[in-house]
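Workshop exercise sheet. Pairs work together: one partner reads the sequence aloud, the other fills in the structure field after running the prediction. Swap roles for the next sheet.
Pair: D.N. / O.F.
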Amino acid sequence: MKPNSPFLREVLLVGSVGLKDSEEVFRTVGPLLGARMKRIPDGETGQRTSWVSRLRFVLESNPSFEDDPQEVAAGGRITHPTEGTRTWEGSGVIARGAPPPPRLRLKAGVRPEDIGVGRLGYPEAAIESYRSFCALRDQGIVPGHLRFQVSLPTTAAFLNAHLVYGHHATVEPVYRGRLFREVDEICEAIRHEDLAIQWDVSTEMGQWEGVRHAHFPDVKAGVIERLAVHCNRVPRDVELGVHLCYGSYGGRHWKEPESTANMVEVHNRLIEGLDRPLAYIHMPVPKGRKDEAYFAPLRGLKLRRETKLFLGLVHDSDGVEGTRARIAVAAKYAGDFGIAAECGFGRRPPQTIPDLLRAHSEV
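Structure field:
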């Protein structure tokens, strides 16, 4: 079935898949969903399953940084009052149930011009997975029309996870420079006609919703400005996607979105700052939302011709039946949208992955 079939909607996998390695992801997803997709991720397996948590090493091994003494004394991260108490559900980096570790800060006397950030590892992972993608495509296991999708957390996600708030403004341009150089490396190593890059936009949505710290006074303008800079860094002939993320650690959002209104506003303001096409935008749909109030703001979504909307309304908890119910309501307010899960599912229990993929394939 072609991706634009009126009967089966186009499918997007947001990023992490929760299988053993990239080859298993390609071998599983390619035959099952490939005909309904335009791009396929490598599943963000191994250490990347923990998203930005694994990147703590970038500052831990850096002589310019040290653990924040207040958070060390508190036994772990001191959360922003609006964040609430959070515990990690476990990964290769942080034990299940452990509090987030203390964030780091710049050591006294470190000058901005002396700060450096080491390699993050994104090009190495992408190039290795791309080799597997190409080999399996040559064998016919990965359909030939699919692009190789690389999903990346933004600068704000790293800062929020690992650095005390007072030093965000100083470190932001340094880390962003390193991240963008790695984007350049990925784009130099992978054929542009084979490549799609997706920005995972979570911390920025938290800032927009008022539950994440922002070091700039005009929060909405600052969020849009920074997102546009990230998006415009991707070459025009590489596909660009944006995943508006409300989190999935612990199997829950950091805040339940009240409706799609804020996501619609972010999209509509973002595209005004882009000097390149946006191939797709992804918006999550909580499993309990089958009501019209959640989807009604989609009527105001200013999609350009080249942009596809994906709604993250596929859930394993109520499977095909629940997904179809959410699709029926969403279809009243949005036209030719594709379907996805509400977030990556790399941190889900492995036994739930087959049912979740099957739900994607049956609606």
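Discussion prompt: The chain has one domain: 22-362. What would you look at next?
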